[in-house]
TrEMBL record:
One of its GO terms (biological process) is regulation of DNA-templated transcription. It comes from the Eukaryota. InterPro entries: NAC_dom_sf. This is Uncharacterized protein.
Length: 81
């Protein structure tokens, strides 16, 4: 299929998930309906293999971004069933 002038392939995130990942997970068969399940992953559940040996305190630094950094990071995972 020939693309028209100015046509660009810019799929949305939903199109990528719906088409490409479903196609890959189902072995190329897109006739099945896929349920999307969104889960949250807590990054604080994982512990480092090696403990830190030191800590540098930058709490008195005026340019510190410590107020902007959250202790909990969540990630949305999409599972295809």
């Amino acid at each position: 299929m020939e693309n028209r002038v100015g046509f660009r392939f810019i799929p949305t995130d939903e199109e990528i998930v719906d088409y490409y990942l479903r196609l890959k997970n189902l072995g190329g068969d897109t006739s099945h309906h896929v349920n999307l399940l969104f889960m949250q992953e807590n990054r604080n559940d994982y512990r480092p293999k090696m403990s830190l040996t030191g800590f540098i305190d930058h709490s008195d630094d005026e340019n510190s971004d410590s107020d902007l950094i959250s202790a909990t990071t969540t990630v949305s995972l999409i599972l295809l069933w």
